[in-house]
Amino acid sequence: MPRQRREGVPPLSIAEQPTDRPRPPSGDWLGSPYLRFERHGRVAWVIVDRPQARNALTLSMYFGIRYAADLVDHDESLSAMVITGTGDVFMPGGDLGHSAEDAWTDLSLFHTDATPFEVLRGMRKPIVSAVNGICQGGGLLIAMLSDVAVVSDRATFRAPELLRGISDMGYTSILPAMVGVARARDLLLSGRTLTAAEAEQWGMVTRVVPHDELYEQTRRAVVELGRAGPESRLDVRHALHQWLGHPDRGTMDRSLRRAESQEGYGSFKQRRKPDWTMPESDAPLPPWAGV
Fold first, then answer.
1. Per the structure, how many domains does the chain have?
2. In what order do the strands lie in the sheet with 127-131?
3. Average pLDDT over residues 1-26
4. Among 37, 207, 217, 247, which is disulfide-ready with 28 (CB 3.0 to 4.6 Å)?
5. Cross-strand bridge partners of residue 134
6. Cα 207 vs. chain centroid, distance in angstroms?
7. What is the per-residue pLDDT for 249?
8. How far is 21 from 11, CA to CA, in rounded Å?
9. At what angle do helices 259-269 and 249-257 cross, to 10 degrees?
């Protein structure tokens, strides 16, 4: 039975997909019950809907977003793609709990090939992220690779991978070009959280709007992008993406296999700090710095 639509969130009335067993993407089915592909006019809405795990992305979900981008690009009835989340979470990145409940194959064999980031960079059609809340990890990369990210004033941004022993090379190739090396270094090495206003000030995103206007402002952004000539728009998009670096995928693959990241995963699942964490007591103020 379709869920009732709440004010300020995208429509939820879509045909129910069989979920009795995991199965690969086909047609408008994106390969996971936690992703929805909705057609509204000439715009495809990809909606991350996994509230029980705070929208954490399984490998099937990552691959489903990649599949959706390709689907939109090759469907002549569609002109743009919007991606958003549900509740107060856009996307927090990958599921560190390694849930396989929607796994239709062993996507870990693909490693970074299963992720959508390079495909999003190469899309022929516009992509807009409607950032409705918490945005970090792979979600942050998706927002930054979108043509426009329309951001709720309630959203927050974070790159927490180093806190889990993961060398995410996607950030190192994109963030410095967008916000500068000093700010990229600060955000990546500390893992601290930015507000929507701070992210806009830094140049990470450009359109912060009142939360209740998020989807209307997203619709307007799609219409604006749709005014450009498709071929000239593609030329300019590709030229702009040349300012961004390309991730060192080998380093990231090795990072995901080593003991440090396994400790990071384990500490996350056990809700404890990793064994390398410096206690506050190990960083006292010098006597002369006290008040």
1. 1
2. 35-40, 43-48, 80-85, 127-131, 148-152, 207-209
3. 55
4. 37
5. 89, 156
6. 17
7. 82
8. 25
9. 60
Cβ–Cβ under 8 Å, residues 112 and 62: no
CATH at 178: 3.90.226.10
Q: Give Cα 103 to chain centroid, integer Å.
A: 19
28 by DSSP, 3-state: which? Answer: coil
**What does the H/E/C string look like for 96-107?**
CCCCCCCCCCCH
Q: Write out pLDDT tens, residues 17-35.
A: 455 689 999 999 999 999 9
Which helix (H) or strand (E) segment holds residue 152: the answer is strand 148-152
CA distances from 16 to 29, 37, 264 (A): 10, 11, 37
Quick check: 42 and 80 in contact, CB under 8 A? yes
How far apart CA 112 and CA 168 sit, in angstroms, is 10
Q: For the chain, what's the residue count?
A: 291
Residues 6+ apart with CB under 8 A from 213: none
**Full DSSP string of 253-274:** HHHHHSHHHHHHHHHHHTTS--
Separation between Cα atoms, residue 193 and residue 183, nearest integer Å:
12
Kindly state the tokens that stand for 143: 């927002």
Cβ–Cβ contacts within 10 Å for residue 129, how many?
Answer: 30
The reply to whether 125 falls in a domain is yes
C-alpha 216, offset from chain centre:
21
Q: Is residue 168 part of a domain?
A: yes
- Find the domain containing 59 and state its range: 35-94+114-270
In three state form, how does the secondary structure of 171-223 look? HHHHHHHHHCHHHHHHHHHHCCCEEHHHHHHHCCCCEEECHHHHHHHHHHHHH
Q: Are the CB atoms for 90 and 257 separated by under 8 Å? A: no
Residue with tokens 């604006």: 224
Whether the pTM exceeds 0.85: the reply is: yes
Sign of the torsion formed by the C-alpha atoms of 67, 217, 132 and 147: positive
